[in-house]
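Quick start: read one record
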Amino acid sequence: MKKTKTDILILGSGIAGLSLAIKASSLGKVSVVTKAACSESNTRLAQGGIACVWDEQDNFLKHIEDTLTAGAGHCKREAVELMVKTAPQRIQELAELGVPFTSSGSKKFELGREGGHSHNRILHIDDQSGMAIENVLIEKARSITNIEFFEYHFAAGLLKDENNKCTGAVVLDTKNTEMHLFNSKVTVLATGGAGQVYEQTTNPLIATGDGYAMASLAGAKLKDMEFVQFHPTSLFHPQANGFLISEALRGFGAELVLPDGTMFMKKYHKLGSLAPRDIVSRSIFTEMKKHQIPCVYLDATSHKSEELLKKFPSIYKMCFQLGIDISEELIPVVPSAHYMCGGVLADLNGLTSIENLFAIGEVSCTGVHGANRLASNSLLEGLVFADQAFKYIRKNRTELFAVNASDPCIDYPYLDKQADKREIEYLKSDLRKMMWEKVGITRNTKELIVAKSIIEESENRIANWLSKNTLNEDLLSLRNMVITSKIIIESTLKRKESMGTHFIEEKKILYKNDQILA
């Protein structure tokens, strides 16, 4: 077993993990562990941008209220205020690193608008914001000698000492098929989300709930896992692979319509196609069931092709490659699992219930998203709470770095037998279909109880496989998907009232201003 000692171990290489790595490199040795190439993350797929009060006509209170409203009254106001009020500083840092935010032509950043926002406040880089930010952060992190990347390393579990302090992680080096022990003073979960537990998702293949599963196995507290956000508009095409049609396109004037061109969103919410995501997703789902259609459509045909190509180059090109000219034709779209609003319970500094273990970004639950995330607050959350974690580690470095990172006794199977990959893929497929059908956009208690029974059977099969087979990436990802799915199901059963992204069919919804589906 390979061994590495480090000061700060960061699991994940999205915006949260990378921005923390860059800042924390001034405090000691940083090891960034990532299960694929470091560029693979949900961050890279984020099209819309970062929400931030940047215009003189906008203000912090408006952004705070928009966030609280979208979150269905379930947000932690203190966390929301912190995120919103420190956003301009974090944006300025990105700009200084070289992130090329799109300009309006007058040396000011162009500000887009998305669902749930009362003002234009989305800073973006065309429609490839996440990719542009990720590229800049990777380039910066790779230039710092105190940061070492461990790509294609799959975290298998967290390590703790007798005092319940996290002392690192056991990681599978998937290229060399051997275990790698990381002893660390501080360990940070920045592992992203769990979209792959659903049949339809905008998330990359790596989003299998690894951080939630590891935290749960280590005894950390998780919160609000029932609140799974479905993005209303992923491209409906057999070759699209969950390609996201950014909400910014609706912010630019595109409307959701039925196959005959009829707009339908105004009857569900006064903001129409720019209503909060939970409402739009359920509205689309309702219309699909009502009319027995496989999708609805986005109509952007009021704009010229040159204009759309300039504003949304990746969306325009992707659709064109699949035979859809969005300046002349409707774009077929369906809702897809997109973002986990809950996660590993963390305070305003990213600290979890396990000492020396931090959680930042989508894997965490700080309370900023409540029951439904406001559009483009996700990249912002990653930036803000990475900075909070850095400041806390810097201030408490002496105490945190005093942790005893001695080698624990670890017993992982080194058996010659390999689990049948086809069986694993079958179980993954069945799991994803079950979660989509029974724990998806709309839910009912009877189906949730059935789902719980199914997931417990899967859990038993996984335990049997783990005891008889060599640990590998396929088996680990399946284990994590099953654990995460079970947590989502159990959390969903506990939440009796409909709220935000959590919609129980047999319960009439009570909601502020009566602006949600009943």
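The chain has two domains: 2-227+341-400, 232-335.
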